[in-house]
Amino acid sequence: MKNDVKELVNKGEMLPLMEEFYTIQGEGFYKGTAAYFIRIGGCDVGCHWCDVKESWNANLHPPTEIVKIVENAKKYSDTIVITGGEPLMWDMEPLTSQLKSEGLKTHIETSGAYKLTGVWDWICLSPKKMKLPTEEVSAKANELKVIVYNKDDFRFAEEQAAKVNSDCILYLQPEWSKRDKVVPLIVDYVMANPKWKVSLQTHKYLNIP
């Protein structure tokens, strides 16, 4: 990467864009809502069950001017979801400021492992054991979405729920490859602990991105 481009990336004026697409939000509070997704490359959290491991290496994804990203986004939807990868590895302030100046709603899906940057209407925190979220992201999260891969994830979920604000909506979501085994466990857990809700990856059931 050339030095001038690298400097723009470091400032958040260019971002390693993996993909962008218009679809239906499949998870959490806004499931069923049309939204434009911007997937930013780069992640070092390293979930072994990640379904977008091709996003991990930021160098594989072309640095793209945020002006172009915003121009594309505003054609499709007023709800923009920034995801990854781990988008907070980059400075989200320039991108979100431009999106907000266009009157768009900004949502982020993040592990919360990095400093919170950007202006957000909705923060979906999906914490990971390998790299825990910062106190700031936990405090400001609108929804907590814990992926359940095995029984120990219920313990982890309660630990993380103790760190978020009282208005944060709590979700347990089965890891897709283990759904047949963990869905019954999640159902039983939510019925016994009704502060939690079940989140499903409905976009996969609908066979859409």
Automatic annotation (TrEMBL):
Catalytic activity field: 6-carboxy-5,6,7,8-tetrahydropterin + H(+) = 7-carboxy-7-carbaguanine + NH4(+)
Cofactor(s) listed in the protein's UniProt record: S-adenosyl-L-methionine; [4Fe-4S] cluster; Mg(2+)
Record note on cofactor: Binds 1 S-adenosyl-L-methionine per subunit. Binds 1 [4Fe-4S] cluster. The cluster is coordinated with 3 cysteines and an exchangeable S-adenosyl-L-methionine.
| Residue numbers binding [4Fe-4S] cluster | 43, 47, 50
Q: Where on this chain does substrate bind?
A: 24-26, 39, 83, 209
Q: Report domain Radical SAM core positions.
A: 30-209
Q: What does the record note on quaternary structure? A: Homodimer.
User: Entry's InterPro entries?
Assistant: 7-CO-7-deazaguanine_synth-like (IPR024924), Aldolase_TIM (IPR013785), rSAM (IPR007197), rSAM_sf (IPR058240)
Tell me where the signal peptide lies: none
Which EC number(s) does the record attach to this protein? 4.3.99.3
Write down the species: Neotamlana nanhaiensis
Instruction: Write out the pathway annotation from the protein's UniProt entry.
Output: Purine metabolism; 7-cyano-7-deazaguanine biosynthesis
Which GO BP terms apply? Answer: tRNA queuosine(34) biosynthetic process
Q: What is this protein called?
A: 7-carboxy-7-deazaguanine synthase
Keywords on this record?
Answer: 4Fe-4S, Iron, Iron-sulfur, Lyase, Magnesium, Metal-binding, Queuosine biosynthesis, S-adenosyl-L-methionine
Main function: Catalyzes the complex heterocyclic radical-mediated conversion of 6-carboxy-5,6,7,8-tetrahydropterin (CPH4) to 7-carboxy-7-deazaguanine (CDG), a step common to the biosynthetic pathways of all 7-deazapurine-containing compounds.
Q: Does the keyword S-adenosyl-L-methionine apply?
A: yes
Q: Which family does it belong to?
A: Belongs to the radical SAM superfamily. 7-carboxy-7-deazaguanine synthase family.
Q: Which GO terms describe its molecular function?
A: 4 iron, 4 sulfur cluster binding; carbon-nitrogen lyase activity; magnesium ion binding; S-adenosyl-L-methionine binding
Q: Which gene encodes it?
A: queE
Chain positions recorded as S-adenosyl-L-methionine binding sites:
49-51, 85, 126-128
